[in-house]
Amino acid sequence: MNKVVVVKAAESRTCSQTTPELVFSAVSPEMLEEFLVDVAKENESSLLTLSSHAGSFKKLKLIEFVFLLCEQLGLHQVTRYQAVEILERFMIRYIEKLYSSTCTGSDKNTEKCDWGLLQVRIQDHFVLRIMSCVQIASKISFHCQIVNNIMALKFLQSLGYSYKKEDILDSELLVLDTLSFQVNVPSPVTHTEILLEVMGYNDPSVPVKYLHSISLKVLKFVYLMRNTIYENLLKIAIENSTPSELQRLCSSWPQLAV
After folding, report:
1. Which secondary structure element, helix H or strand E, spans residue 6, and what is its range?
2. Rounded to an integer, what distance in angstroms lies between the CA atom of residue 134 and that of residue 136?
3. Which of 45, 141, 179, 239 is most buried, judged by most C-beta within 10 A?
């Protein structure tokens, strides 16, 4: 299905580093309704299959790194959120697969040793995995701002890593294969733009472009302050300044949205 918010083709072909102009109210009510139904179904499916480790790779320092990386590469704001979502899903599934294949049927001593070695290997290549997720996100978001293998290699080398082109390609394929090539999933930006599209349809006087600009700033703040925000919301909701572990666990599932 076509996206609700479209990019003008003329501007897309220029492949400049400027932000492509978003066009709201460019779809029919029927398409908008169909899109809303599809997104609702995807959200429901995501909640049903949500890993208990969701949110583990949305820590402040990690999100800051991804955002700064995207900024240094001159990527559109949308790309940074796609990259975070891809990284979160990939790392959880990748680690679960590694742990399952390594530890199943092993005795405790062997299991501890093997898993310890795998953890070191995961940490050693973590920045490369982040770059791969950014590369994939750049191809999904705006095709005129793709991070190719040469760009990725030069950037990693500037950070002191000695990877080769083959490593960049293998890492990207690993991310795609681990996620079964299902990488184009709705991000919070998608939901924000859908809500703005609905607002603009219901009331044409609503300044959706202006609100879109503000929404991206708010979304950035929410991503960076995610844990603090949810911590305070939890305390307010349960009227207790010291939530128990059970209360934290029961309230953790809504964090899928961001």
Report:
1. strand 6-7
2. 5
3. 141
Q: Which residues of 105-144 are buried (b: 16+ CB within 10 A; e: fewer)?
A: eeeeeeeeebeeebeeeeeebebbbbbbbbbbbbbbbbeb
The CA distance from 229 to 221, in Å, is 10
Contact assessment for residue 171 and residue 129, using Cβ atoms and an 8 Å cutoff: yes
Identify whether the C-beta of residue 6 lies closer than 8 Å to the C-beta of residue 26: yes
In terms of phi and psi (left: phi > 0; alpha: psi -120 to 50; beta: otherwise), the region of 147 is: beta
Measured in degrees and rounded to the nearest 5, phi and psi for residue 58 equal: -125, 40
Q: Which has the closest alpha carbon to 258: 41, 43, 40?
A: 43
Q: In terms of pTM, does the model score above 0.90? A: no
Q: What is the spatial distance between Cα 162 and Cα 154, in angstroms, rounded to a whole number?
A: 10
Is 149 a residue whose pLDDT tops 90? yes
Top-confidence residue, 4 or 191: 191
Q: What mean pLDDT is predicted for residues 146-162? A: 92
Q: H helices of the chain, where?
A: 9-12, 29-48, 60-72, 77-103, 108-124, 126-141, 149-158, 165-178, 188-202, 208-224, 226-238, 245-250
Distance from C-alpha of 80 to C-alpha of 220, rounded to nearest angstrom: 10
